[in-house]
Structures
1.
Amino acid sequence: MRVLGSIAAAIAVLATAGAAAAGPPQTGQSDASFAASFAAKSVRNVSATSQRVSCYRPELAVEWRLGPEQGYLDGGLTPCPGATTGEDLGPYPTQDAAGAANGVFRAKDFSESDIRVDPTNALHLIGQSKWAIDAEGYNHQLGFYESFDGGLTWPVQGHVPGYEGWADVTDPVGAFDPWGNFYSLVLPYQFYYDKFGSKKYDNGSNQTNPTVPAEAVAVAVHPAGSHSARAWISTRGGHLDYLMTAKTANANVPDKQWITADTNPGSSHYGRVYAMWTLFVLNPSVIFESHADARPDGTHSDWSAPQILPTTSGKRWDTYLLPHVAPDGTVWTTTTFNPQQQGFSHADVNLVWSKDGGATWQGPLPVVAGVSVPTYANTTFREGIVNTFAVGKVKVRGAYPLYVSYEDGSSGVSNVYLTASYDQGATWTPPLLVNDNAAPVDELQPNLDAAPNGTVSVAFYDRRLPCPAPGDADFAGSGVAFDPGTAALPGHPFGAANYCVNAAVQFYRADLTPIGKNVRLSAHTWDPQLSAYHPSCFCSSGTFIGDYFGVESAGGFTYTTSVSTFNATGENPFFHQQQVVARVATP
């Protein structure tokens, strides 16, 4: 169903009122107060990915190395010193002869992340991340790390097996089904390097590995009760568990996949798993959904035929699908209309939904229009997914609330905003400014969660605290002495403002009443330029810390998993991108 004409116009006015509204209801917070909030709120940090040595055999083993003078103390490929994860080191069934002949290398950098809590056991957590053997070459598989004690330790981790025959596997996102089986929706794709080190996708049928499709959307399942890095189900009926495949990697290719599962006992589609992704058809994009019914043993029914989701009439530039299931079984997702005009600089967020288990879809309804997609000052990492979405688990005014947060750069820096709907998307509250920094700096990459008790959390990367300077307690551990600076801010960034990063969170009641002020989630301010991924070419200045990071609340705690390059206790001596899991009590 498409809502047209005057009704849509009226709704749009309500949806976009105050799209870049000023001022959070809570007052501004001093930098000293924000810095002290980590200890004041008893936040706990654990470096998850530094606890084990993970290795795998890549399909493509071409080294691109930058040196210490460029912020890479341990660049390029590192032969495996001895894996401690128990994962399979190959060769793998999906590899061709060339891939099978490659060496085994250590995964060293872990960028972009997701975290989920098992609905059957709130102490059981699984995080996922890009699992890179060569950050400069953006050469990575998808990896996971698993905790059974509420995030204190992460004894099971490694690359997600089954798709090693592709040059890269990407976009960490997963969901637990009602029985504790973990579904990872993966995006394996092929590329090659040109002589300059640029990644290329235009080799048609002459792929790096011609024995597998150029690109795919597929699933791997980590069964409930597993305690092994090898315990994944990636095949079904004797074949890889594909939802969609592509013949080439530079046209008609899937990307930006997301997944959720219905874990609500009262739902008529209890156990259904919903997968969504974008198909980029040359320039325009088409958005798809497919679903299957999970089974207690970790298997599932056939995936439904992919169906196209509704978009604004006559426009196909939608992406960033973020599905969630309400307690009544309604499946909701936002879509982000981000057209090529003006360099993808503006975005509209819309809403679509299904009340019959994905059989039919309704919408779109507008949420917010004219978001100014930000770019970040001083550093070289790109912006991430501009918006995030969550569905409340406790009714407000007779309906399950819908929440959208987004970053907006219209003020000259990136700020984070939050809006809500309490009438199933018909109207939206005026956006609230989430970040409470005193001086204007970039606040970025928000991610939303709604806890079982109704508390809403907006987690985001925060740049209000200056980089450590000589004499500071965190100076040596930060590695800023190895950062040569950027074109925008040349020289070592000692004490630099709007450059180094912390993770932060703001809590709200279900009605968006703020609960206190922004809380610092990082024990240490970290430098995003160190060991940074180069997604297009090691020769380019553009870098990457991820398009998003994970947050989820359960068992009275809110967990995030986010990047840090800090070396706190000697666990990260070369300042690699590690995944640090933060835990804070959910108010």
Note: The chain is about 5% helix and 35% strand.
2.
Amino acid sequence: MSLPSVEDARTAMLAWAKRLPDETLALADAVGRTLAEDVVAIRDQPPYPASAMDGWALAAADAPGRLRIAGESAAGSPYAARLGRGEAVRIFTGAALPPGADAMVIQEDATRDGDAVTVPAVGAGHYVRPAGCDFRGGETLLTAGMKLDAWRLSLAAAGGRGELRVAKRPRVRFLSTGEEIIDPGRTPGPYQIFDAGTVALVALAQRWGGEARRLRPVGDDIAATVEAVRAQDCDLIVTVGGASVGDHDLVKPALRELGLELAVENVNVRPGKPTWFGRLADGRRVLGLPGNPASSLVCAELFLHPLLRAMQGADPGLELVQAKAAAPFGANGPREHWMRARISTDPDGTLRAEAFGDQDSSLVSVFAIADALVRRPAGAAPLAAGGLVEALLLERA
């Protein structure tokens, strides 16, 4: 049986991804969340012509000259009267220009003498921020599906919003399986390994908007696996390990007792061929990842991240960039290969990708220093240095 490509497998998974409901949060609580509505400005910003510097507001037609000081305009406390001919108003950064003023002279360029100020010639609009120069009332500032960071929250606040409607966070539970798996920090036996991959997967899911939790690992036991999964009130279960077809790979047989229906059984990808996806009888989705850390992390980037984005109403597409090969790539085999790589940038901004020599799927140390995953299509011919490759950049901060 032919295996689906990465793109076909992802499409099948996304077809079963369940968009989560919305909730309304205060701005302070919405950072990192996915916007579920368009944000429209309620008025112009700034709502009035404002001074860009400290200085003197005046009519450009009165400059140069000696002008009578009529008053003061500060942010939040404007000079309300109309400016007369031959008058100037002391003004501070961000304050509204009084009616009749169309320019300002910065304080360094003016000379005050008692109740008068001498100013040089300036043109209309000099050091003035026009009303609406940032955005106009009715303008769409943010669109549904955007991830809210500090800068976007600032824009929403400037547009007059105190609350935002956002997608609920997907509740994700990670379950590692295997007799050899032990919690980090415990004393291992001679043939046990620490559950390193799941720690990283939880961190990634949280970064990608999930409310993620790592469950206690279970051994190669169908009953224990069933009970561990049955007890979870969540939207998505991610199993790590037990995904292949060996005598000890019991996750899918266990979950069939909970009504598992598969959309994807395996994927034509390296690393990560045993990756699978389905849903239980109660509607919870399940993503099965391989136990080797590199395999699980590669497939988290390729499948888990798009799934979480789709569940939050965001665009689930992968954002690939083009880079030049820093060294030759050999011919690829029959599976699409996502190779851990280091990225460098030329002075002209050109990206260069160099794959690490050892791509063994068990190596955590290589992933810890990788900047990207380079995609090599199934059956790709050798590629000389300088040829173009596609790369998925990894978020390292």
Note: The chain has a mean pLDDT of 95.
3.
Amino acid sequence: MSQTTSVEESPEQRVDTEKLIYFFGGGAAEGTARMRDQLGGKGTGLAEMTNAGVPVPPGFTITTEVCRWFLAHDQTPPPGFEAQQKAALDRLEHAMGKTLGHPRDPLLVSVRSGAKFSMPGMMDTILNLGLNDRSVQGLAARTSNPRFAWDCYRRFIQMFGSVVLGLEKSEFERRLEALKARRRARSDADLAAADLEALTLEFKELVRRRTGQEFPQDPLEQLSLARDAVFKSWNNERAKYYRRQNQIPDDLGTAVNVQAMVFGNLGPTSGTGVGFTRNPATGERVFYGEFLTNAQGEDVVAGVRTPRPIDELASEMPDAYRQLRDITARLERHYRDVQDFEFTIQEGTLYLLQTRTGKRTAQAAIRVAVDMVNEGLITGEEAVMRVEPATLDQLLHPRLDPRAKLRVIATGLAASPGAAVGRVVLDADAAAARGRKEKVILVRKETTPDDIHGMDAAQGILTATGGLTSHAAVVARGMGKPCVCGASELQLDERTHRFRAGDATVKEGDWISLDGSTGKVMLGEAPTLPAEVGGEFAVFMEWADAVRRLKVRANADVPRDATQARSFGAEGIGLCRTEHMFFEKSRLPHVVAMILAAPEAKSCEGQFESKRAELEAADPARAGAIRRELAALKKKMAGPLATYRRSLAKLLPLQRSDFKGLFEAMDGYPVTIRTLDPPLHEFLPKREDLMVQVELMRAEWERGKKRKARLRKPAKLAAAERLLQRVEELHEFNPMLGHRGCRLGITYPEITEMQARAIFEAACEVTKRGMSVIPEIMIPLVGHVEELRHQAAVVRRVAEEVMTDQGVRIEYLVGTMIEVPRAAVTAGQVAREAEFFSFGTNDLTQLTFGFSRDDAGKFLPEYVTRKILPSDPFATLDGEGVGGLVEWAIERGREARPGLKVGICGEHGGDPASVEFCHRAGLDYVSCSPYRVPIARLAAAQAALRGRTAGSDQR
């Protein structure tokens, strides 16, 4: 394929064999910054650094096209590839003056993955490739350092054995730990050459026993096997999981980078490290990182040894440190973003092995974005595009209450900020299983890429070893999870499912609390306080608000939530669910009384009207009897009707008070209030619980009657039986499609009337106090325009009565929630009655797909995993199906009513991808939960900027 080949092209297409491998080295690289699709992020970075004169060990990048071909063609490379690889290896050998695996002076290489999008630790790496039983002796003689040679060989067998041959990493680790224990060595660096030679032989024997074959000795065979293993790692479970979590397409494939080894384990003047040009946890403009002397890069990342702060390198190797500071500062200015870099120092000489855009917390991302604008590196609009909207959720999480009196049992490195409180689990699988039901904290000696699913499910991560750039730290920051690393007081015993920290013993299931901002580990369940956001956040959000078109409202049912929403920048309430007010403990008895009285009152009322009509048409002989029947009916319905009306009358001032609070909190902003939506049975006790309760009470009554034959039925039992009878009458086989929403208001218009009266009385009262009130009354579950017409008439009649009585005029709207597909299809008719549309995409998704929201969780994850659906349609709006209905309804609605206000009020309103759809579809606003308002504001801004870019590209 050519350099401009799209990554969306099918791997079945013929691969252009002209260029499948790109060389870098000697101050020049064949690749360029525009080739990220083919060379991946790592390959592109190596090419750019080489072209910029940065000291980079030479090598070559095998393109992602080869990976895609390999995976689609029975794990075989494309035609012509082997010849290109041989030519690239010959060129590398010439550049280094060495031959791969030469018995006297071997060239050794690393084989690393490198996808277009950074996937830290998810795919595989192999170091020191080219060593065998002969070349290890040559390396020892060439360097006069047998310890170094055997250390490289044992590392190579360990990596190759787990990555290529499929042995468990733990099998190698157990043998290494046992050797260290026998030698009383604190770390690998304390082992002697003879120890490492013996360990290498032990590793080789392990390979022979587990595979039935000797460890491969041919360097070219090693290279082919390693390359193919890296290609295959694109589809390992942890990589697939990471891509699902980060919405990375599965069809991109990974590049493979083959690079000459440089060695940080040659002795005290050698070392390796990882760093960031700014603090990835806070965004502070400080040089940030860690290093180890006499070690290889995997030691730092894997957390095998707890590394040292990078500042200490300045005194230990000052020349290399000054060069590193200079180079990384240039890289940051070149890329205009924080750089995450890896380096090795070989006997005092510095080499850069990687640079890429650094993953960071939301707090850091915002501070970096604001600082870089102030430094003149980027524009405000570029800053807005630098922060992932979903990550803002991290800023809004609670923090530990500093007044909490909890025992600190350990202190580690503050690797990722935030508070985490949960039950201890020591295994990633257990964390993934239990994390669905309860809060857990994953505690490990160190994490590995295989732990990704458990890390995702946990509230926070705690490790006994590893540093600020270890796997646990990097992945936790990317996920926005609090993390404490390198808590050396921890002694884990996975066999007994517990750990010790000082004199404290903590068992799996015990509560602990982590402070990822201080590194403290506390025993027990710490209380939390609301999040606080800094001044940079306000500045950043001002830039976002300046470019977005979509308004952002909040779903809020009580004044407390409305006030919180305003503090997060909500521009009104897009959904107030009035039924949530009914569930309050002090109000529920009135609601239950209303429900119990309503059917009998309405039944008698219906019969009374029927008899009255009959009286008007009756002859005089029959009239007397009908009047007596009317009198009896009037007497019969007096009690239930009075109870029904009395209950509504008691609810009226309570609802009015709620609405006053909402109007006051949203002074000058619109408040959309949905009339009662759920079926009435939801306010009553559960049918099954009542049946058990009634049976127990009956049994007790029967036992009492044996002692006293004429014992009357207890009043509590009679009341429970009446309640059960009403619950049985209200029972529905499919309540989501049953007697709810506008259907309830049509059957019981007095409920709609009471709610409308409460809304307008509250609005008039607040208006009289000089505040601006903009009520929008929304009728739910409309499927036919006549349903809306009926309910809108009730609302408008009550509004006129209240405003006339109060002497106040209020501008208001009556609209509907578009959540039934028929309403969307007939939107032109509905819009003649509705003054606004608000798409209830939760129910609209449910009814369009025919999925039950409550039950779809049993199969939707499988649908996503098997790629039947690209994502959960209840989390991200289905643009083709549900979105097609939305676009149809908007178009037809605005044809019937130009300027029709249109919004969305399902949880999709806080999902960044769904917000982008809403922007493109021409909605006026989105509405979401208060804590997702900043996410929606930023997503709307990014959608506007992307739309502007797309428009200029089309022009």
Note: The radius of gyration is 35 Å.
